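Suppose you are handed a protein chain with no further information: no name, no annotation, nothing but its sequence. What can you learn? This example shows the usual starting point.
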Amino acid sequence: MNKFFTIQIKVEEKHLDSLKHVNNVVYVQWLQDAALTHWKTFVSKELDEQVLWVVKRHEIDYLHSALLNDELIVKTWTGDYSAATWNRHYEIIRKADEKVLATAKSIWVLLNRKTFKPKRIDEQVLNVLQ
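A reasonable first move is to predict its three-dimensional structure. Written in structure tokens, the prediction is:
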């Protein structure tokens, strides 16, 4: 599997705050969208019906503003993992000048979809995200 996974976003009016740049909360939504799209692209239906991911922590560094009509790339990749958590990294890049607008790291926890209890990351999950 390719190390990096990307989605593309075009900044719309609904993404802006009173300062006319992308609201910080929107960046968090884009991180989640990229992570979940990455997972859904490669996971089998069977495994997806057994587990789900929830965020334990987000760390975001806002470097530059995204503005109306900017075309962005949200790049994500997985990093270190433990028994039931996985670190995921991100960059949000403006396509026009390839400037990195934000960097982020999230800790995701794997849960059993029926019990909502943490589930050990096993070989099936490793095969999806490595």
